[in-house]
Amino acid sequence: MARQDRAIRTRQTILTAAAKVFEERGYQAATITEILTTAGMTKGALYFHFPSKEDLALGVLSEQDQRLTVPARACKIQEAVDVITLHAHRLQTNPMVRAGVRLSLDQQAHGLDRTGPFLNWSRVIGGLLEKAREQGELLPHVKPAETADVIVGSFAGIQAMSQALTGYQDLNNRVSAWLRHLLPNIALSSVLTSVDLTTQRGGAVIAEIEDDTEDPPRPATEREPATG
Amino acid sequence: MARQDRAIRTRQTILTAAAKVFEERGYQAATITEILTTAGMTKGALYFHFPSKEDLALGVLSEQDQRLTVPARACKIQEAVDVITLHAHRLQTNPMVRAGVRLSLDQQAHGLDRTGPFLNWSRVIGGLLEKAREQGELLPHVKPAETADVIVGSFAGIQAMSQALTGYQDLNNRVSAWLRHLLPNIALSSVLTSVDLTTQRGGAVIAEIEDDTEDPPRPATEREPATG
Asked: Which UniProt keywords apply (chains A, B) (predicted)?
């Protein structure tokens, strides 16, 4: 394996371990020692990539930002729905995404800048709404930046309620109901008639993504010895 | 002071201290010892009222449930808006309410049943929507229970985003924008034209409540010796 590939792989092993520990313990109680043990990694390898616990958490937080793209759609409202339903799907299947969302809502994460995910999400959704407006998909009163903030904020709560009540079992239903409540006041009804808001949408989008690396990470015990 | 008054006051002193500690530390890291110190209370007095840390947290969680009533309104959509904007106002001014909301979203609160606030809120908002439907205020497709869940879930996220980005400085603006996005797909426009959704609504409702005990609790050092 080339040196660079190995570095990328080591970084990913560390982030996967960090995500697991942050998700279980929260930011405050998580320790670098436990992340090292989970990753099966030496201190030197970890500190080379992430000098502090905050850097590890920011690494986990930014992983979800790199996953905000979906195949381009002619209808930009559909593309925004796809970004949202894909994210909802990954919350149920991908520990890294789940850890990122939990960190961003962890009010006990003192000293951790949690604004990034909210701002990035607003930027992505806001950008899609801008394009939707240019294409004439939106109702005339909609201000893309304001509406993006409403979408991003309320999604955070919809997923939190689903997590608290059913451990995400009903997340697809809740997201679908929420979108049905919100979108008729954002997009033209002539646009919405051909937008797929159903509970299956997230799964359909993920099946469509070719280069997707959605395999759940193997537990540390099954891995070959760390290369760091 | 009568014995019963003293017990109620002791209970309130303990809950205020617990709210402070839970808000600062989160459920997992909070200790009964720190709550005792903050309350200036003996172990015996505390355990008489709350046998465990979980009981203390459930006590804080249920405090917000007792604050879900507002003056009855002829328009039930306005009454629902008043419950929501009053709660938003209290998030900014009342440490007990803030601690309750944080606990209900604390995913590291292992062993704590966090479903209560979500279910109670849904019941209250759902009940108001049922009445609104009977009075003909709602659009025909609205199912009160589903819509109540959308409202409660998305509010949880709107407040979380405001907390993360601005420490609640922009909460009233975010709540107002969110309601403007959601309500036109719930209530008739003829009803909405006379509903107050402005950023000042929560403050106006609290000023109206006569028997309101919104004074911020005094810090422990200013209190007379504990009576427990």
From this structure: DNA-binding, Transcription, Transcription regulation
